[in-house]
Amino acid sequence: MVGEIESPEELDADERDALEALLQRLADDEYVLAERYTEWQVRAPTLESDLALSNNAQDELGHARLWYDVLEDLGYEEHELVYERDPDEWRHSTLVERPFAEGDWADAIVRHYLYDVAEELRLEALEESSYAKIADRVGKIQSEEGYHREHAENWMERLATGEGHERLQDAVDRLFPHALTLFEPVDEQTEETIVDAGFRTESLEDLAEEWVNTTVPFLDGLGLETPAVERVHFDEYEFEVLDEELPDKRGRDGSHTDAWNDLHDEFTRTYRELGRSEATKIMETAE
Amino acid sequence: MDVDTVKERAEPRAFSPADDMPEEYRRAATRMIEFHANSEIMGAYLERPFIRQAPSIDRKLAFSAKVQDEIGHGQLLYRAAESLGVKTREEMLDDLANGKGKFLNCFHYPMDSWVETPMIAFFVDGAAMRRQATLRRTSWEPYAHAMDKVCFEEGFHVKHGESILATLMTGSKKEQEMTQEAFEKWWPRIIQFFGPTDDKSTHHDFSSDVGLKTKSNDELRSMFLREYIPKAERYGLEIPDEPRIRERDDGTYEVVEDDLDWDEFFQIAKNDYEPGLGQINGRKAAQDAVQWVRDTLEWENVPEGSAKPQAAD
């Protein structure tokens, strides 16, 4: 039933682990994507696109915060989750951690598009979550995400001619396999529990199928090829992600590409430098 | 309108694009607003690494929003500058990228550590607030109008900077010491923010006569010191021994000018200071790398037979 579970006390140990895994996937995706988006601040092609991508970054950060906040139900605090977890404890998809080559705006736009289609589908599958706080928060996030997908599609269309086309194709080739990891499980058992407990009402396989049937025809319409295009048939919806189409590192299982370690090191730098991890706020007087 | 008439009629928000302004006025106003717009962009460039390095999501959000606001201010100010008909936004942005555009001294210095962020976000922004508040009474109406929005948002930035400073100065002993060290490094630069004293300021007289500037450098610096010395002390910062500062009987402040490095200041003013050049060129490289996107947009936005591409977002 929608929102019937008010507190983790109503869950058994496996269900609590599954809830934690689901929330970490959601929060970490949003957080890490926002980190990458902010790299475009003061570096975007025009002042106007700079402002627009900054908005996206702040939206995603806000959503990450909403999800980390739900994780507090399970006894975590935001600063522990963001600043004190080891890099291999993060559960985001490798799509969001990949670095940008300087000036590769096409990469930012393709990533933005692939991610936000998935995000839309994922949120729909959480609208009727059995966990009350999840169902509560989906509406707020959805009100912002609709605009994101539109923004990404507009840019895809604008760049799809001339030099932009080739750059888009390169980005699709590079990012598509990583985007498929959005639908990888943390592990099979946990994934099964997520669906059985009704935390998410659709399986990852179903979400992947819908995603591929949305993105591949759209890309195809812009003359962009995907490795999966051969296997997407417009008269039948079925699609299964094949193991060989996935990258070695899949994020969800804690394995990440090298770029992630660098990124993690950068955003935890001040926290470490100030010694905040020592969990101290010893009030020493300056005199 | 001739220059004498301009001087006669000069008052807050007296002139707008509907007036036929003499070239001398338009050039002076363009130089001033372009400098201001460039400073917004280069300030944002200096602060952007700290979006990533912020030690909490709240601070990260605030830094991202602040940097975004500054780009927004730049956009607004370039528009106000363009309205004088001397230079287009593209020309001003190109000049900035090519090291010809001038901007605030403080944004030429590198910033390496989080503890330096309140030096900009509290002190420099606080100093900027002082000056900007007076510019709401400038004679070029589009500039004054832009200042209304800029001042409103800048108020939040200063509060954000003050909150970072308060956290650092009530944190561990190490945090407090690092912050004091950063303050000592930045304090002379912050005092130089207001530029050379009135008797040495090149553009002061004309700008003031035509109502573009409503307060002199000396007045602004005194106002800032009166307000910010006690604020710094309240947070436990010690004011460095140099430059020597003395309060006069009339409540204004005297600074021993020889204690400040004016050679460095003028080197910076000419865009010849090495670290500053690094920032200018770093930004240029980033801008060059996305030139292909702007080219795509221009191509898309040129309707047949039209001479000039429209702005695209």
Structural class of chain B: mainly alpha
Low-confidence stretches of chain B: 303-313
Determine the mean pLDDT of chain B: 92
User: Rg of chain B to the nearest angstrom?
Assistant: 20 Å
The major β-sheet of chain B equals: 2 strands, antiparallel
Tally of distinct domains of chain B: 1
How much of the polypeptide of chain B forms β-strand, as a percent range?
under 5%
**How is the CATH topology of chain B named?**
Ferritin
**CATH architecture term of chain A:** Up-down Bundle
Give the % helix of chain A: 55-70%
Quick one: how many beta strands of chain B? 2
Described by its quaternary structure, the protein is heterodimer
Measured by residues with Cβ under 8 Å of the partner chain's Cβ, the largest interface is: A-B, 54 and 54 residues
What portion of residues of chain B is helical? 55-70%
Topology at a glance:
The complex is a heterodimer of chains A (287) and B (313).
Chain A (H helix, E strand, L loop, with lengths): L12 H26 L8 H25 L6 H6 L10 H4 L7 H20 L7 H28 L3 H18 L7 H9 L7 H18 L36 H10 L1 H5 L14
Chain B lengths: L2 H7 L13 H25 L1 H5 L3 H26 L6 H9 L19 H19 L5 H29 L3 H20 L11 H6 L7 H18 L10 E3 L5 E3 L6 H8 L4 H16 L1 H11 L12
Antiparallel strand pairs in B: 1-2
Helix pairs in contact in B: 2-4, 4-7, 6-7, 6-8, 6-10
Provide tags for this entry.
heterodimer; A: 287 residues; mainly alpha; Ferritin; 11 helices; 0% strand; disordered C terminus; B: 313 residues; 2 strands; 64% helix; globular
Explain what this protein looks like in three dimensions.
The complex is a heterodimer of chains A (287) and B (313). With 287 residues, chain A is mostly helical. Chain A has a single domain (8-278), classed as Ferritin, core subunit, four-helix bundle (Ferritin). Helices cover 59% and strands 0% of the residues of chain A. Chain A has helices spanning 13-38, 47-71, 78-83, 94-97, 105-124, 132-159, 163-180, 188-196, 204-221, 258-267, 269-273. Chain B is mainly α. Chain B has a single domain (3-301), classed as Ferritin, core subunit, four-helix bundle (Ferritin), CATH 1.20.1260.10. The chains are: A mainly alpha (287), B mainly alpha (313). The interface between A and B is large, with 54 and 54 residues.
